Amino acid sequence: MAIRIPITQNPVSCLPGIDFDNIPFGKYFTDHMFIADYDGQDWVDARIVPLEHMAIHPANMTFHYGQAIFEGMKATINGEGTPLLFRPELHIERFNASATRMCMPEIPDELFLESIRQLVYLEKAFIPSSEGSALYIRPFMIAMDDHIGVAASKTYRYIVICLPVGPYYPTPIKLLAQTDYVRAVKGGVGEAKTAGNYAASLMPAQTARALGYHQMLWLDAVEHKFIQEVGTMNIFFVMGKSIVTPETDGCILKGITRATIIDILLDKGYHVDERPVTINEIVEAYRSGDLIEVFGSGTAAVVSHVELISFHDV
Prior knowledge:
With 314 residues, the chain is α+β, with helices and mostly antiparallel strands. The protein contains six helices and 15 strands. The protein is 23% helix and 29% strand. The strands form two sheets. Strands 10-9-8-15-14-11-12-13 form an eight-stranded mixed beta sheet, sandwiched between helices. Strand 8, helix 4 (195-210) and strand 9 form a beta-alpha-beta unit. The longest helix is centred in the middle third of the chain and has 16 residues, at 195-210. The protein is globular and about 60 Å long. The protein starts with 31 loop residues before the first strand and ends with a strand.
């Protein structure tokens, strides 16, 4: 049985102000958002309300201790006007894995799915129809206790917002691999979609852009040679007759698009090798001519062609 979610309609829609022929990623939002609160025992007061600013106490524990997780999902629309979600069950699983790692309560599967389904259906007029565009869905959870002291919050808020978006990378991308910064270590929070991971990546990414690259290609924190992922996507290398991608060892995100690409490749008869892969192996494959293609995958990035990787003097 579907969960009943009361809806408060936004009296003024922002839809007329959106140019669907020019949709920069992350700029426009839909009219409504979903909210539910965790009172220490249960998820309560699920509702869809107009998108608006929230009043947050300065001692909110998210600000001070970083309990914040999120997912990135997309919805498209078919020829009959029905919104389509992409593998939501895998996003539920990953969201709750992030919640567990960050000492936060899990979202019941049905509540997560209904929050997305009902909000997306309400906002279906915002779903772009052009190729490469979609309605980006951002479910997230934050701590809500007002308390100074290092501990897990007892109360939380789960929110879903939506954005009509165009392609994240409209052109092929350039990556910088180097050893000055690291993203994650085994035993850390590398495979959780927690806000702090992305905060830590901002300065290295800014450094890469200043040098003419789009993103960092992260290497491991111990030996600085094993490839992990890119700041916005998982990474694949086509070498010889194999497609190679770093294994999910706790340091990289278990990408939904990554898993889907592997499923499709295997179904089409390709050999996919999930294993440790070093940057030196990629350099040697490039020099020998065995490196045929490199691409990244992610909900926002979809499938992005990598045209250049820079590592030291190569």
